[in-house]
Amino acid sequence: MPAPASPPAPLAVTCGDPSGIGPELAARIAAEGAPAPMVWIGDPRHLPADTRWQAVETPSDPVPRGVLAVLPLPFAGAAVPGRPDPANAAGTIAAIARAVALVQAGACSGVVTAPINKKALKDGAGFAFPGHTEFLAHLAGGVDVVMMLACPGLRVVPTTIHIPLAEVPAALTPALLARTIAITRAALIRDFGLADPRIAVAGLNPHAGEGGAMGTEESRFIAPLIRDLQAQGVAITGPLPADTLFHPAARARYDAAICMYHDQALIPIKTIDFAGGVNVTLGLPFVRTSPDHGTAYDIAGRGIADPASMRAALVMAWEMAEARRRAHPAP
Fold first, then answer.
1. Residue ranges of domains in the chain, CATH in brackets
2. Rounded mean pLDDT of 38-54?
3. The pTM is what?
4. 236-240 and 146-151 beta bridge pairing
């Protein structure tokens, strides 16, 4: 008789900035019942004093229900809620690197990252990356990635991200848009189990340019690119006016929307599900999600932080890992 299959590996949850709300969110979710198997990577000293936690040697070591499994990672100092300490920068970075190494080794199913403070990381450890996404791409070998924001009712992908609005038209090139669409489509198939994903593309200008009266990017390269992809059998539509792209009937017609700039993508998802949005990095060889909020220093340590987005990030990471397991079952 064949041996029973081993249970899927847990998710690796990083501590994030220990002075932010990351540690308390992990502790609360574990105490209330985590939606997926998880192991927390960080310094146990940074957890709330009443946290029920247990150190483990490997991510899959069992712990009682309601207890947070911890892979201890000593930091240079204690953590004061709301007061980021550059001395803890190296530990924060090491937690991310360790989570990625565990996933790459097959010991964890995916990475869920708690929020970081980029300035503290730069000041304390010379962190040379704009944020999590770029660092994760570096750890994965320099792969090409894009950012998706997702909730049960909407998935959006901004083509340009953290740049001034005035710089968007120059940054928005045909090659960048084509790359964003390709990475998004591949991830929808691999990570979300959609055999033929439907993609909607927003226009850059009001009314999607209105035939050139309000801008020419749509007619010059956005529409031709979409026509080329349609000729290749891709289920894609656009360019569509952004002001009519996100009402319920419109959202029912696509699986993800490609937007042209940061706020065009983030305003609708934060309006639809402010507390439960999830940041997903597409294009990595491993699953990575994160809550769609920051360190929340103003409420850190007070026990009032909403765990909805972190919980949703765990659920989505587990579902994405399951989709990959179904596509490539273990022998």
1. 1-144+283-331 (3.40.718.10), 153-272 (3.40.718.10)
2. 97
3. 0.92
4. unpaired
